[in-house]
Each structure stands twice: as C-alpha cells, then as structure tokens.
Amino acid sequence: xxxxxxxxxxxxxxxxxxxxxxxxxxxxxxxxxxxxxxxxxxxxxxxxxxxxxxxxxxxxxxxxxxxxxxxxxxxxxxxxxxxxxxxxxxxxxxxxxxxxxxxxxxxxxxxxxxxxxxxxxxxxxxxxxxxxxxxxxxxxxxxxxxxxxxxxxxxxxxxxxxxxxxxxxxxxxxxxxxxxxxxxxxxxxxxxxxx
Length: 195
Prior knowledge:
The chain is α+β, with helices and mostly antiparallel strands. It is 49% helix and 14% strand.
C-alpha cells in the first residue's frame, strides 16, 4: 500500500495546490488525486516535476529541507507487519506501535501557516534533519527563530520516551538531538507511517 504525504509538504512550504501545479507543470487534478490517494498510477516525470517544484520553493523561502520521493510517497506492506526483523535493533514492534500511537495523538501547535495543528510524529518526520543534526540553544539567550523555538518546545514530550537528548557544546551552548532510539523511531515512522 502506498501512503501519500504531499499535503504535509505543501503545508510545510506554506503554499497551495494551485501554486504547486503552476510551478511543477502538473495538472491540479493530479495533485488533488495524489493528496487524496485517489490515483492508480504516477508517472516518473510527474514525481520529478513535483520534487523540483517543492525543492525550488523550499530554497526560495529559505527552508532548509530537501524533498525526496519518500517525503511525498511511502510504501507500506501489511504482509511484513508481523515480521520482527523488519523493525529495528532498539525498538521492537510493540514498543514502536505504542510510541507511534501516543505521539500521533500528542497534538502540537506549530508556527507554520497551513500546518497550525499537527502531532509529534509528523513533526519528527518533517524536521528529522534538524533533529538529527541537532538544534543548538544558547543558555540565557532567547531564540528569535520561530521554528527553532517550536522544535525546542517539543523537547519534554520527546525526552519522556528517550527520543532526544541534550549535549553540551561549550560553556553556554547545548545541542538537542535525536538519540539512537530517536533515529530508529523516525526511520520506522518513515517505513510504516505515522498512524
């Protein structure tokens, strides 16, 4: 089964289907069908055009996100759900499903227009690169970056399940980043979806 995440990408970039259609040269109906998962096939050229448009928009808006096929389409196969080997080294199937259920029901309010209300699982997928590299915070100096402030506000929920940790970066800087468990959880979300 394929899961389509194009709508999340559109919201992240604070754009709409019409603008994406114009930039990608993909018909508006095709984009709407992809969002609703109401398509039987997709041309490689269509995927390339959508990714080029999404990455162009991200670059023009100063959003440090590089979109790949797996950011808009994910594959999930029910036949392999019970195979423990398809899960990670740290997180077993039951723990993953429990974490995914809890964190997909953990509602957060974002500063991203069009994505004002989402959940922790989607935040982890959308900002996995930032969490992997780490978010640097200077103690006593408030950040003016609204996305950074938002991501830091998710720390308590993520730390509760040992998905993030803080590391010292000198006398006054710390870096919030994914733990090994957090990295594996995000990879499992990419593989099995957020719900």
